[in-house]
Amino acid sequence: MLLTAEHQALYDTTRKFVEQELNPQIPEWERAGIFPAHEVFAKMARLGLLGITRPEAYGGLGLDYSYEVVFAQALGHCVDGSLPMAIGVQTSMATPALARFGSDELRREYLAPTIAGERVCSIAVSEAGAGSDVASIKTTARKDGGDYVINGSKMWITNGCQSDWACMLVNTGEGKAHQNKSLIVVPLDARGVDRKTRLDKLGMRASDTAMIFLDEVRVPQRNLIGSEGMGFAYQMMQFQEERLFGAASVVDGLFNLIAETIDYTRQRQAFGGSIVDNQYVHFRLAELSTEVECLKALVWQATEDYVAGRDASMLASMAKLKAGRVSREVSDGCLQFWGGQGYMWESSVARSYRDSRLISIGGGADEVMLGIICKQMGILPGSRKKPAE
Questions:
Q1: What is the pLDDT of residues 36-95, one digit of tens each?
Q2: CA 127 remoteness from chain centre
Q3: Which domains are delineated in the chain?
Q4: Of 30, 242, 329, 389, which is the active-site residue?
Q5: Whole-angstrom distance between the N-terminal and C-terminal Cα of the chain?
Q6: What is the Cα–Cα distance from 28 to 17, expressed in whole angstroms?
Q7: Is residue 242 flagged as an active site residue?
Q8: How far apart are CA 103 and CA 126, in angstroms?
Q9: What is the Cα–Cα distance from 62 to 52, expressed in whole angstroms?
Q10: pLDDT tens, position by position, 139-155
């Protein structure tokens, strides 16, 4: 995919924001276990960063998804994985279905102020017993008068303690698991919503993650996104953007970590020479850099297909799979070369080591990605699709 001067300008603006407005605050936000989402998103909105691909009618820029991927890649300069993840929820995970299928009234009420940085949002799909297995969610919404009445709970919800609303997947019928679900915009200040439980995570420490309980929560039926019963299909579409965004957002951070490791191992002396002068060390760093370049190429090939309207599900799943595995490999490999200093909690390589572990879990575990890839290749048991020639 050929990138333009406009892509570069967006990249530069985003990187500057990250380095000036986010990175200096990371230690404080990590200690607090939360960052001020409304304050940060308001600043980003003033730069036009929260609605890059969203319709101009609702305050967006109306650009194609390649610009969102450039934005995500620039976010990789953040020294903490929490912020790119939380920002991605706002721009690429909770809003695609609303932007594409929501009524004009619903988009004006929720999408426009979210793009303007006035509201924070969450994607609420996972449950304690239903993570990657989206079809097995138990949360229900029954009709009563002009409302849906929602009961259940949602787990591991990013931005959940601060969100003004959530794009929530619920069961609205008794039919087949892939045909009885709907996406509903749920205001999180509604009576019956309890999201006081903030979860204590291994990594991604600077963002808040909540467990949300819903007890007879009333939501107007007009808050339905698109058609009832289409929620599973809409969510699979949202996952494509989530996976591309997530994969793109780790690339530059991994390059930075390798560069930082090279600098550190040049300075660190052992057995009469610099650590980096050992052939194993500099060969390994070259291998890791090659792996990140491969991930970057895969992300951009998937993006090109997605922007062109081709089925990008296999390449997006491959990019998501590769992002998780390469992130773990790079952070672990670099930490080893930092020695004891790399094991210190405050070191950048230790933070990357902690944060990177989530990438192979959130947004569809590695095993789910492999299942999607196998299905697309025609080698999943029971699959009749012929492999591409």
A1: 999 999 999 999 999 999 999 999 999 999 999 999 999 999 999 999 999 999 999 999
A2: 17
A3: 5-115 (1.10.540.10), 121-227 (2.40.110.10), 233-377 (1.20.140.10)
A4: 242
A5: 23
A6: 18
A7: yes
A8: 25
A9: 6
A10: 999 999 999 999 999 99
